Structure formats: C-alpha cells, structure tokens
Amino acid sequence: MEISGPIMIRSLPVPRLATCLLLLCFAVEWSATARGATVRIKDITDTEGVRANQLIGYGLVVGLNGTGDRLTNSLFTRETLISMLNRLGVNIRDRETQLQTHDVAAVMVTADLPPFAHGGNRIDVTVSATGDASSLTGGTLLVTPLMAADGEVYAVAQGSLATNAFSVRGAAATMVRNVPTSGHIGNGAIVEREVPYDLGAKTHIHMSLRNPDLTTASRIAAAINHVFGPITTVLDPRTILINLVGRDPVTTLSRIGDLTVQPDSPAKVVVDEASGTIIMGADVRISTVAVAQGNLTVQVTETPLVSQPGPFSNGTTAVVPRTSINASIDKDHHLAMMPSGATLRDLVAGLNSLGVSPRDMISILQAIKADGALQADLEMR
C-alpha cells in the first residue's frame, strides 16, 4: 500500500511534528554555519565621511584633597591658576608668592567627537594629569574648551571626575589601585560646533575595509550587486566605490550594511616574544618538515668551604672554592614529522606532541619559516 507524504505528516502527533521541524531548522542552521561564518558588511567596513574627530584641551581640576600639583614645581599650573583668577576679577599678581595651594592640578582633556553630532549633544571626556599631582580623585574640572586639529573649538567640558582608583600612603608602605591621575567624565562635554557633512547629497561614496583583502572586497561587491544591481566597483583591496545615482544614500547604505558576507584573510602567524603569545590563522599551511626539540640544561653550583686553623696555631682562615657543574639533556623529546599541507590543527597537535612550551614554539616557527616550509607570513612583535 502506498502512503503519500502528506498523510504521514498528518498522522504525526503535534508534539512530534514540532520536534521534527525544530530539528530540521537546527540542521539547516548548522549546515550554513559549517560552510563558513558570515558577518555583516557594516561590521567590517567604514563609510567615507562617517568618522569621529579627536578633540583636546588644557584645563584645571580643583577640589583635590592635598593631592594636586606643587606650585613651586609646576610653574604652568601656577600661571594658569593666576590667569584664571584674574579673568574672574581676582587680582593676585602682587601677592603671587603667597600662592601655595595643593588642591589644584593642570590636566589635559581629550574626547572623540562622534559623526553627525549636533550642537547641544553631550560626549564623554578623559582627564589626565600633566604635573606632579598624585591623585585626581574627588576633583572637579573647570570649563575647558576642546579644539580639533583645525584650531576651532567644537566642545566645552566641565564636571566632576570619576577615577575608580585610590591611593593610600603610609610611613613605610604605599598602596595604589588603578591609575588615580587619570579620570573620566561621562557626558562631560557639550558640543558647540558641528562638523558639516551632507551624506544625503552624495552620488558616489567609498566604502573602506578595516582589514584590506582583495577576496573579501570582491565578495562584498558581489553581495551588493546581487541585491541592487551593478552599482559597485572594487578599486583596491581596501576600497569599494558605490554608485548611488538615483537612490536614497541613507536607505541604500543602511540596507547594504545589513548584508552578510564571509570574510577572508591571508595566512599569518603573529608572535609576541615579550609575552610568549602565538596567534595562527586557520589558513596557515606548512610543507613537509621534520621537527625535533630538546633542552640542554647546564647547572653551575658554587659551595665554598671555610678552612679553619687548628687551636692555638698561627695559621689563618682560608676560603676554599668548590664548584659543581651538571649538564643534562631532556631525552623525552623526539623527532616529529609534519606532512606536506598540514593544517593549523595538525601543526598545533604536532608541536604539542613534542611537549614544547610557547617560547620554544616561537623558535621552532622561526626555524620552519627560515627553512621555507611555513606557507604564511610570520610577524614578530
């Protein structure tokens, strides 16, 4: 008797049917993931003109509990304080030698002006001591203009600092947690000037990859053209030109940013000798090579002996040197063969089978690269 598909589905109980459909969805999702992880285009690219601008300013922090600059050492703090008081109508030029406060510190104020920030918007600022102040905890930043590279003031900062640090000093011990000479003011600056940029009037715009790669750029262009038609041109491994003629730039860029692609990256091994850290990409390959690693340990021990003269004798005390030298070779490590085309997993497994430490792996990777068997860029830091 022949039973059709629809009859079989109707014959399933509702809970079993839901379970089967759920497992089918999981299988489809796992299959898509196995083919390669995808990311959104807006997570790996930057759009021309949509960028932040760095701001900087010089100001004073007051209200410190005796942890500010010493005015006899930090002359710029002294002059800044005198100039500020004069602007506020307090003339102390004739009595400036009596100015000995320790509750003021000169600071540098930095901030990032985000794209499309308008007048009245608030941004975060970072405050850092420039003199010999020991702590900015509890201080208040006075009005500080923040300028950009063109010399124009784009924001004004003021407010109470938060350092999330403390410093305790005693007669014979000191405890410091975090950095008390650097603080943060959330929403501590008000934007006074806008950076003009009319995104809606653009007819052509460049999109830049944060990690330049020709394959990734081609995949991004293909994904965009598949949805919008042939509107992109790959100019170089970093830059993609998008033609927005006849389209709304904001809506089009928003839809482009949500498209997903599978990024590619060159085979690279990054080694940080200072910390012994090794990072290897998934596409790292090696040619056939044999690797052996062994440690030669030489131990030199000095145990001098003291020779004392006999009782009631005219002899002198003498020191007799005694040196012990011991050399040992680790015999547990053997020669291991790495076959041609070995993947990252094979390479790591082979090195781990030798029982080598990360610092020994650095030497081995350098030797493999010198032999020409490492088919990847080796970047030393």
Automatic annotation (TrEMBL):
GO biological process: bacterial-type flagellum-dependent cell motility
Key word Signal present: yes
Localization, UniProt: Bacterial flagellum basal body
GO cellular component annotations of the record: bacterial-type flagellum basal body, distal rod, P ring; outer membrane-bounded periplasmic space
Broad class of the protein's primary localization: other
Molecular function (Gene Ontology), one example: structural molecule activity
Keyword Signal: yes
Annotated keywords: Bacterial flagellum, Cell projection, Cilium, Flagellum, Periplasm, Signal
Transmembrane feature ranges: none
Assembly description: The basal body constitutes a major portion of the flagellar organelle and consists of four rings (L,P,S, and M) mounted on a central rod.
PANTHER family the record matches: FLAGELLAR P-RING PERIPLASMIC PROTEIN FLGI, FLAGELLAR P-RING PROTEIN
Role this protein plays: Assembles around the rod to form the L-ring and probably protects the motor/basal body from shearing forces during rotation.
Similarity remark: Belongs to the FlgI family.
Name under which the protein is recorded: Flagellar P-ring protein
